[in-house]
Amino acid sequence: MSASAAPAPSSSAIGLIGFGAIGKAIWHSFGGDSGIIGPVLLRPESKRSVPAPLSRVDDVAALIAARPQLVVECAGHSGLIDHGARVLEAGIPLVVVSVGALADDELHARLDAAAAAGRTRYVTVAGAIGALDALAAAKPAGLSRVQYFGHKPPLAWKGTPAEDAFDLAAITEPTVIFEGSAREAALTYPKNANVTAAVALAGNGFDATRVSLLADPEAGGNMHRIEAEGSFGRLAFEIVNKPLPDNPKTSWLAALSASHAARQLLQQVRSTP
User: Fold this and answer.
1) Is the pLDDT of residue 69 over 70?
2) Which residues contact 106 (CB under 8 A, 6 or more apart)?
3) 183 φ, ψ (degrees, to nearest 5)
4) By CB neighbour count within 10 A (0-12 exposed, 13-18 middle, 19+ buried), where does 271 fall?
5) Model pTM?
6) Side by side, which strands form the sheet with 222-230?
7) Which fold has domain 3-124+253-271?
8) Superfamily of domain 132-241 in the CATH hierarchy
9) Residue positions annotated with a catalytic role
Protein backbone atom coordinates (compact mmCIF):
# COMPACT_ATOMS: atom_id res chain seq x y z
CA MET A 1 0.00 0.00 0.00
CA SER A 2 1.40 3.42 -0.93
CA ALA A 3 2.01 6.08 1.70
CA SER A 4 -0.72 8.22 0.16
CA ALA A 5 -3.30 5.54 0.92
CA ALA A 6 -2.82 5.92 4.65
CA PRO A 7 -3.46 9.54 5.67
CA ALA A 8 -2.87 10.79 9.17
CA PRO A 9 -5.68 10.36 11.70
CA SER A 10 -8.37 13.01 11.66
CA SER A 11 -7.29 14.27 15.08
CA SER A 12 -4.22 15.91 13.51
CA ALA A 13 -4.68 19.66 13.28
CA ILE A 14 -2.00 20.80 10.83
CA GLY A 15 -0.94 19.30 7.54
CA LEU A 16 2.36 20.25 5.92
CA ILE A 17 3.36 20.64 2.30
CA GLY A 18 7.09 19.99 2.43
CA PHE A 19 9.36 18.90 5.26
CA GLY A 20 12.57 20.82 4.88
CA ALA A 21 14.15 23.08 7.47
CA ILE A 22 11.00 25.13 8.07
CA GLY A 23 8.68 22.12 8.09
CA LYS A 24 10.84 20.43 10.69
CA ALA A 25 10.99 23.61 12.77
CA ILE A 26 7.19 23.85 12.75
CA TRP A 27 6.89 20.20 13.80
CA HIS A 28 9.30 20.76 16.69
CA SER A 29 7.56 23.98 17.74
CA PHE A 30 4.30 22.07 18.22
CA GLY A 31 5.93 19.44 20.42
CA GLY A 32 7.16 16.97 17.85
CA ASP A 33 5.15 13.81 18.45
CA SER A 34 2.27 15.66 20.12
CA GLY A 35 -0.05 14.65 17.29
CA ILE A 36 -0.86 18.23 16.31
CA ILE A 37 1.12 17.94 13.07
CA GLY A 38 -0.44 15.35 10.79
CA PRO A 39 0.09 14.38 7.17
CA VAL A 40 3.15 15.64 5.33
CA LEU A 41 2.86 15.97 1.57
CA LEU A 42 6.07 15.23 -0.34
CA ARG A 43 6.74 14.64 -4.01
CA PRO A 44 6.40 10.93 -4.89
CA GLU A 45 10.02 10.84 -6.05
CA SER A 46 11.32 12.50 -2.88
CA LYS A 47 13.72 10.39 -0.80
CA ARG A 48 13.08 12.55 2.25
CA SER A 49 11.69 10.65 5.23
CA VAL A 50 9.42 11.90 8.00
CA PRO A 51 9.83 10.84 11.62
CA ALA A 52 7.24 8.76 13.44
CA PRO A 53 4.42 9.31 14.24
CA LEU A 54 4.09 11.60 11.20
CA SER A 55 2.62 10.08 8.07
CA ARG A 56 3.79 10.87 4.58
CA VAL A 57 1.38 11.34 1.70
CA ASP A 58 2.39 11.57 -1.96
CA ASP A 59 -0.53 13.47 -3.47
CA VAL A 60 -2.65 16.43 -2.46
CA ALA A 61 -5.87 14.40 -2.58
CA ALA A 62 -4.61 12.28 0.32
CA LEU A 63 -3.62 15.40 2.24
CA ILE A 64 -7.11 16.83 1.78
CA ALA A 65 -8.74 13.50 2.68
CA ALA A 66 -7.00 13.62 6.06
CA ARG A 67 -9.02 16.82 6.78
CA PRO A 68 -6.45 18.80 8.76
CA GLN A 69 -7.79 22.00 10.29
CA LEU A 70 -5.21 23.94 8.29
CA VAL A 71 -2.25 23.34 6.01
CA VAL A 72 1.15 25.05 6.02
CA GLU A 73 2.91 25.32 2.67
CA CYS A 74 6.68 25.25 3.18
CA ALA A 75 7.88 23.53 0.02
CA GLY A 76 9.08 26.43 -2.12
CA HIS A 77 7.32 28.16 -4.98
CA SER A 78 6.51 24.92 -6.80
CA GLY A 79 4.71 23.53 -3.77
CA LEU A 80 2.41 26.53 -3.63
CA ILE A 81 1.87 26.56 -7.39
CA ASP A 82 1.06 22.85 -7.56
CA HIS A 83 -1.07 22.43 -4.44
CA GLY A 84 -2.19 25.72 -2.89
CA ALA A 85 -5.40 26.18 -4.89
CA ARG A 86 -6.51 22.57 -4.36
CA VAL A 87 -6.17 22.91 -0.59
CA LEU A 88 -8.16 26.16 -0.53
CA GLU A 89 -10.88 24.84 -2.84
CA ALA A 90 -11.36 22.01 -0.36
CA GLY A 91 -12.17 24.60 2.31
CA ILE A 92 -8.93 24.17 4.26
CA PRO A 93 -7.15 27.35 5.47
CA LEU A 94 -3.60 27.73 4.22
CA VAL A 95 -0.45 29.36 5.61
CA VAL A 96 1.79 30.48 2.73
CA VAL A 97 5.51 30.48 3.48
CA SER A 98 6.67 30.86 -0.14
CA VAL A 99 5.36 34.42 -0.32
CA GLY A 100 7.60 35.31 -3.26
CA ALA A 101 5.50 33.13 -5.56
CA LEU A 102 2.68 35.67 -5.22
CA ALA A 103 4.68 38.00 -7.48
CA ASP A 104 3.01 35.96 -10.22
CA ASP A 105 -0.31 37.78 -10.62
CA GLU A 106 -1.96 34.73 -12.21
CA LEU A 107 -1.11 32.54 -9.22
CA HIS A 108 -2.19 35.27 -6.81
CA ALA A 109 -5.58 35.53 -8.54
CA ARG A 110 -5.95 31.75 -8.64
CA LEU A 111 -5.41 31.47 -4.89
CA ASP A 112 -7.87 34.30 -4.23
CA ALA A 113 -10.49 32.56 -6.37
CA ALA A 114 -9.82 29.19 -4.73
CA ALA A 115 -10.18 30.68 -1.25
CA ALA A 116 -13.48 32.27 -2.26
CA ALA A 117 -14.72 29.00 -3.75
CA GLY A 118 -13.75 27.06 -0.63
CA ARG A 119 -15.08 29.77 1.68
CA THR A 120 -11.78 29.86 3.49
CA ARG A 121 -8.63 32.00 3.49
CA TYR A 122 -4.89 31.96 3.28
CA VAL A 123 -2.37 34.01 5.24
CA THR A 124 1.19 34.92 4.34
CA VAL A 125 4.08 34.84 6.79
CA ALA A 126 6.33 37.81 7.53
CA GLY A 127 9.38 35.58 7.32
CA ALA A 128 12.73 37.07 8.29
CA ILE A 129 11.54 40.68 8.49
CA GLY A 130 9.52 42.90 10.81
CA ALA A 131 7.66 46.25 10.73
CA LEU A 132 5.09 44.94 8.25
CA ASP A 133 2.27 45.92 10.58
CA ALA A 134 3.48 49.53 10.48
CA LEU A 135 3.66 49.48 6.69
CA ALA A 136 0.17 48.04 6.40
CA ALA A 137 -1.18 50.60 8.85
CA ALA A 138 0.42 53.51 6.96
CA LYS A 139 -0.64 52.31 3.50
CA PRO A 140 -4.20 53.77 3.45
CA ALA A 141 -2.81 57.26 4.13
CA GLY A 142 -0.35 56.94 1.26
CA LEU A 143 3.22 55.67 1.00
CA SER A 144 5.47 57.75 -1.24
CA ARG A 145 8.47 55.39 -1.00
CA VAL A 146 9.13 51.87 0.23
CA GLN A 147 12.55 50.35 -0.28
CA TYR A 148 13.99 47.07 0.91
CA PHE A 149 17.73 46.39 1.28
CA GLY A 150 19.01 42.85 1.69
CA HIS A 151 22.63 42.27 2.74
CA LYS A 152 24.20 38.82 2.77
CA PRO A 153 27.83 37.64 2.83
CA PRO A 154 29.08 37.26 -0.75
CA LEU A 155 29.21 33.46 -0.76
CA ALA A 156 25.63 33.31 0.48
CA TRP A 157 24.64 34.37 -3.05
CA LYS A 158 26.11 31.24 -4.64
CA GLY A 159 23.56 29.40 -6.71
CA THR A 160 21.79 32.63 -7.70
CA PRO A 161 22.09 34.83 -10.82
CA ALA A 162 24.65 36.91 -8.90
CA GLU A 163 27.14 34.05 -9.21
CA ASP A 164 27.15 34.44 -13.00
CA ALA A 165 27.57 38.21 -12.90
CA PHE A 166 30.13 38.61 -10.10
CA ASP A 167 33.22 36.91 -8.73
CA LEU A 168 31.66 36.48 -5.31
CA ALA A 169 34.87 35.25 -3.65
CA ALA A 170 36.69 38.42 -4.73
CA ILE A 171 34.18 40.93 -3.34
CA THR A 172 35.80 42.99 -0.57
CA GLU A 173 33.24 45.74 0.00
CA PRO A 174 29.43 45.99 -0.06
CA THR A 175 28.37 45.48 -3.68
CA VAL A 176 24.91 45.85 -5.20
CA ILE A 177 24.14 42.65 -7.10
CA PHE A 178 20.51 43.49 -7.93
CA GLU A 179 18.40 46.61 -8.12
CA GLY A 180 14.81 46.68 -9.29
CA SER A 181 11.23 46.10 -8.25
CA ALA A 182 10.04 43.65 -5.63
CA ARG A 183 8.37 41.66 -8.40
CA GLU A 184 11.64 41.30 -10.29
CA ALA A 185 13.51 40.39 -7.11
CA ALA A 186 11.00 37.78 -5.98
CA LEU A 187 10.95 36.07 -9.38
CA THR A 188 14.69 36.30 -10.05
CA TYR A 189 15.85 35.32 -6.55
CA PRO A 190 13.07 32.96 -5.37
CA LYS A 191 15.20 31.26 -2.73
CA ASN A 192 16.51 34.49 -1.25
CA ALA A 193 13.89 37.18 -1.73
CA ASN A 194 10.62 35.90 -0.23
CA VAL A 195 11.01 38.69 2.28
CA THR A 196 10.77 41.30 -0.49
CA ALA A 197 7.38 39.91 -1.41
CA ALA A 198 6.20 40.20 2.20
CA VAL A 199 7.27 43.85 2.22
CA ALA A 200 5.52 44.48 -1.10
CA LEU A 201 2.25 42.89 0.03
CA ALA A 202 2.22 44.95 3.24
CA GLY A 203 3.04 48.23 1.53
CA ASN A 204 3.21 49.59 -2.01
CA GLY A 205 2.80 46.39 -4.01
CA PHE A 206 5.24 44.45 -6.13
CA ASP A 207 5.92 47.06 -8.81
CA ALA A 208 6.25 50.19 -6.66
CA THR A 209 8.43 48.61 -3.95
CA ARG A 210 12.13 49.07 -4.72
CA VAL A 211 14.69 46.42 -3.85
CA SER A 212 18.47 46.50 -3.51
CA LEU A 213 20.31 43.23 -2.85
CA LEU A 214 23.94 43.44 -1.75
CA ALA A 215 26.84 41.06 -1.38
CA ASP A 216 28.39 42.42 1.77
CA PRO A 217 31.56 40.94 3.31
CA GLU A 218 30.90 43.04 6.42
CA ALA A 219 27.48 41.48 7.02
CA GLY A 220 27.48 39.47 10.21
CA GLY A 221 24.50 37.49 8.94
CA ASN A 222 21.52 38.05 6.69
CA MET A 223 20.60 41.71 7.19
CA HIS A 224 17.25 43.14 6.13
CA ARG A 225 16.35 46.83 6.11
CA ILE A 226 13.12 48.60 5.24
CA GLU A 227 12.89 52.33 4.59
CA ALA A 228 9.51 53.98 4.02
CA GLU A 229 8.12 57.48 3.72
CA GLY A 230 4.56 58.72 3.45
CA SER A 231 1.87 60.84 4.99
CA PHE A 232 2.51 59.11 8.31
CA GLY A 233 6.16 60.23 8.44
CA ARG A 234 9.31 58.14 7.98
CA LEU A 235 10.21 54.61 8.97
CA ALA A 236 13.45 52.65 9.09
CA PHE A 237 13.68 49.07 10.35
CA GLU A 238 16.73 46.81 10.35
CA ILE A 239 17.30 43.28 11.53
CA VAL A 240 20.25 40.87 11.36
CA ASN A 241 19.16 37.26 11.43
CA LYS A 242 21.00 34.30 12.82
CA PRO A 243 20.71 31.06 10.83
CA LEU A 244 18.52 28.18 11.91
CA PRO A 245 20.76 25.86 13.96
CA ASP A 246 19.81 22.83 11.86
CA ASN A 247 20.14 24.59 8.51
CA PRO A 248 22.46 27.60 8.01
CA LYS A 249 20.74 28.49 4.72
CA THR A 250 17.51 29.38 6.54
CA SER A 251 17.05 32.39 8.83
CA TRP A 252 15.93 31.34 12.29
CA LEU A 253 13.31 34.09 12.35
CA ALA A 254 11.79 32.78 9.10
CA ALA A 255 11.11 29.44 10.77
CA LEU A 256 9.81 31.13 13.92
CA SER A 257 7.55 33.32 11.80
CA ALA A 258 6.04 30.30 10.04
CA SER A 259 5.38 28.57 13.35
CA HIS A 260 3.83 31.72 14.79
CA ALA A 261 1.53 32.15 11.78
CA ALA A 262 0.42 28.52 12.01
CA ARG A 263 -0.29 28.84 15.73
CA GLN A 264 -2.28 32.05 15.28
CA LEU A 265 -4.36 30.68 12.41
CA LEU A 266 -5.03 27.44 14.29
CA GLN A 267 -6.34 29.43 17.26
CA GLN A 268 -8.57 31.46 14.96
CA VAL A 269 -9.91 28.38 13.19
CA ARG A 270 -10.67 26.64 16.47
CA SER A 271 -12.43 29.69 17.88
CA THR A 272 -14.69 30.13 14.82
CA PRO A 273 -18.14 28.61 15.39
Assistant:
1) yes
2) none
3) -65, -45
4) exposed
5) 0.89
6) 175-181, 210-215, 143-152, 222-230, 233-241
7) Rossmann fold (3.40.50)
8) Dihydrodipicolinate Reductase; domain 2 (3.30.360.10)
9) 224
